[in-house]
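Saturday, quiet lab. Running sequence design on the structure tokens for the scaffold JK sent over.
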């Protein structure tokens, strides 16, 4: 899906620099957008990815300070997160690999709980949006301790693991869910993500899971839709079921 960069006059220089790096790599363009394409806009609040759905404009903008993500981070120390429960009795200070950072929400919650998080995201547009959000969040002293626990790399998990001979206490993996249905129940941001990533965004997810199991001391936690089959037919040791999400727990190989 083509992505066109359209900055406003008040686009911050750090955000503009991230977008210009995408253009230099041939991953975005300054040309006029295809009416059905995606637009990477930039205003005073940084980068956002926008898509057209009929007469409606759908926008994906990451804000780690305000809104639901800011609230989740502010309460991460006390909230009973299913993801934290799925990691088991993992001591603070443990090293956790997030193999598919996406919008960065789980990575930051893990960092806020005191884990040292290495976060990977292979899609360059998603990585750019998250990098931009991190730059803006770094200006807020309240997030200083959280961001100090996070090490973000725009990289494919399989390639990164092949180049870095590290062992982690645990790993989390959230491969892109296939669309269940096309209706209003699908969140707007998910509609934009599906336009960006396509229907089968992570065809190599089973291989990534197998690689992760060889590089952890305790467990790999995989996020799945509640009624989805096990990833790649690999049966987990056990699972934690939420309202709409299931956390499959795999032991090391």
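Result came back. Writing it out in full:
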């Amino acid at each position: 899906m083509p992505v066109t960069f359209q900055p406003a006059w008040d686009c911050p220089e750090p955000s503009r620099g991230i977008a210009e790096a995408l253009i230099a790599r041939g991953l975005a363009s300054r040309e006029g957008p295809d009416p059905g394409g995606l637009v990477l806009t930039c205003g005073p609040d940084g980068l956002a990815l926008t898509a057209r759905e009929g007469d409606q404009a759908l926008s994906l903008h990451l804000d780690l300070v305000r809104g639901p993500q800011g609230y989740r981070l502010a309460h991460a120390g006390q909230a009973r997160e299913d993801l934290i429960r799925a990691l088991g009795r993992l001591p603070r200070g443990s090293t956790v690999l997030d193999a598919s950072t996406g919008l960065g929400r789980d990575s930051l919650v893990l960092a806020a709980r005191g884990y040292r998080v290495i976060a990977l995201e292979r899609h360059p547009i998603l990585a750019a949006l998250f990098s931009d959000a991190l730059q803006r969040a770094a200006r807020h002293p309240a997030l200083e301790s959280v961001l100090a626990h996070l090490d973000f790399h725009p990289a494919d998990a399989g390639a990164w693991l092949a180049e870095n001979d590290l062992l982690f206490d645990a790993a989390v993996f959230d491969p892109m869910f296939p669309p269940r249905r096309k209706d209003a129940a699908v969140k707007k941001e998910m509609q934009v993500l599906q336009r960006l990533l396509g229907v089968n965004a992570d065809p190599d997810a089973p291989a990534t899971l197998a690689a992760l199991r060889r590089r952890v001391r305790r467990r790999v936690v995989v996020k799945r839709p509640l009624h989805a089959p096990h990833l790649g037919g690999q049966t987990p040791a056990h699972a934690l079921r939420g309202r709409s999400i299931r956390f499959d727990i795999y032991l090391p190989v």
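Notes for JK: The mean pLDDT is 88. The radius of gyration is 18 Å. Ask whether to fix the surface positions before the next round.
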